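User: Let's play a game. I give you a shape written as tokens, and you guess the letters that built it. Ready? Here's round one.
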């Protein structure tokens, strides 16, 4: 039985993305897509546990261009679909609406294969039962993108399926579950919801005090990491923002898999260069480690 560097628990999403000029594109997104390609591009082995309806999303085809990803279908009668409307050219402000969603992942969905890191990558609260974090923590290091526990789908008028607009709320069980998490990823807004402070360094310190061991906070200007002793930061240096969607997923997956063999400064610099390069093109990152290293030489100083 193969042991993987990364096992991603998270569904692909049928995304409908409309930019601030009103142009709409349909694509398959979701944290599992962007994260799987990012880790694969750096040469790490990935098992992607995607829950969807196979008649709507062809999981093997989705990862056909990622040579280091093994997709495993967690079959569902429904797939997640989300509408994203971006209000600004930099795509920092958006309105999200849930069109359909999967039933939640449970510990029974975890496969028999082992991994060094278990990446919990839901898209909204209820996608992944909190008991999956507890089960994964008994198997390896746990990485959590907190979006999947803060973003809540509100029922649309007349809907019986808990779909509609999405809003962010604090995570009720954060104090109980953060001690199980090695790698925690938030963006600046999510960090403020969790901690009550807009100071990113103070927020990272609070999240560490509550139990998470390495905290990553992404911002449109930089990526910050705190390990309880030191703060590390690297700027984001994309030459355009055509591929802004999937920024956080790409950065986080690149960082956590690099940490298997490298220190924080090297891992963070690689992740920042990776996501900067990815943001220049829509969709998941399709380059390789050599492309990322060339970008680092051109735009980052060791």
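Assistant: Ready! My guess for every position:
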């Amino acid at each position: 039985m193969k042991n993987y560097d990364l096992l991603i628990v998270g569904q692909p999403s049928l995304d409908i993305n409309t930019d601030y000029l009103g142009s709409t594109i349909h694509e398959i997104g979701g944290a599992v897509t962007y994260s799987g390609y990012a880790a694969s591009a750096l040469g790490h082995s990935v098992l992607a546990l995607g829950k969807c309806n196979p008649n709507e999303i062809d999981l093997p085809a989705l990862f056909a261009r990622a040579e280091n990803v093994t997709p495993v279908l967690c079959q569902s009668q429904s797939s997640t679909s989300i509408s994203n409307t971006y209000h600004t050219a930099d795509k920092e402000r958006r309105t999200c609406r849930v069109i359909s969603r999967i039933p939640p992942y449970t510990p029974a969905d975890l496969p028999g294969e082992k991994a060094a890191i278990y990446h919990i990558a839901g898209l909204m609260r209820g996608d992944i039962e909190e008991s999956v974090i507890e089960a994964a923590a008994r198997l390896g290091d746990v990485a959590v993108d907190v979006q999947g526990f803060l973003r809540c789908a509100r029922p649309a008028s007349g809907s019986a399926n808990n779909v509609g607009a999405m809003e962010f709320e604090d995570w009720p069980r954060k104090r109980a579950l953060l001690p199980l998490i090695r790698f925690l990823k938030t963006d600046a807004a999510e960090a403020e919801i969790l901690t009550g402070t807009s100071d990113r360094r103070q927020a990272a310190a609070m999240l560490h005090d509550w139990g998470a061991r390495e905290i990553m906070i992404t911002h449109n200007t930089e990526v910050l990491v705190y390990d309880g002793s030191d703060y590390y930061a690297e700027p984001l240096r994309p030459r355009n923002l055509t591929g802004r969607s999937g920024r956080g997923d790409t950065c986080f997956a690149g960082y956590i898999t690099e940490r298997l063999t490298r220190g924080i400064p090297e891992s963070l610099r690689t992740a920042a260069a990776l996501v900067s390069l990815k943001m220049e093109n829509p969709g998941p990152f399709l380059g390789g480690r050599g492309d990322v290293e060339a970008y680092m030489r051109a735009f980052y100083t060791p």
